[in-house]
Amino acid sequence: MNLPRTSALIFTLLLGAFASAETLTGTVTNKTIDKPAAGDEVVLIKLGNGMEEAARTKADAKGNFKFTYDDQGPHLIRAIHGGVTYHRMAPPGTTSVDVEVFDVAKKLEGISVTADVMRFQVENGQLEVVRLFAVNNESKPPKTQMNDHNFEFYLPEGAKIAQSMAKTANGNPLNSAPVPQGEKNRYAFIFPLRPGETQFQVQYTLPYSGSASIDPKAVYGMQHFVVMIPKTMQFEPGQGAHFESMNDPQQTDATVQVASLTKPGDPLSFKISGTGVMSASTAPEGSTNGGAMGGAQTSGQQSGPGGGLGPPIDAPDPLQKYRHSPRQAEAKWNTKSQCVPALLPPFPGPLQPLRYKRSECQPYPQ
Question: What pLDDT shows up at residue 73?
Answer without folding.
Answer: 87
